[in-house]
Input
Amino acid sequence: MDAAIRIPAKIKTRKEQDLLICFSHLRWNFVYQRPQHILTHASREHQIVYFEEPVFEECSHSSIRFCDAAPGIRVATPLLPIGTSPARADAIQRRYLDRIIASTPHAQLTAWYYTPMALRFSAHVNFDVRVYDCMDELAAFKNAPAQLAL
Output
């Protein structure tokens, strides 16, 4: 008996692939957890941008660091000067997010949230799909932002 083989009518090229932007409070290389597991599988059909929370360091101006973590998965880490205000940090991240979206050809645009703090700089984007994945009770974390308290 022959096994049924499903052949897609059209295989998407990398250019046509859907873009999934994941906003996470976890560093990609910290520990292999739920986000890495799910997004590694999703990268078979989607371009993945894993947008980390910013790193504050001694520098004169902001920048963004990109790292290819795996095939189809790119980690974006905003680097902000120490002392950057929360409002300024949101404005900078919004600008970086807009540039990433504009410079990445895609069919469908998906947001995957592991941190609600990213809504401050991403709510303006007209995503086709939004996923809110509540993996951790972030408000209970040590040094959690006051905005997370209910």
Residues 23-133 form one domain. The chain has one domain: 23-133. The two ends are 59 Å apart (CA to CA).
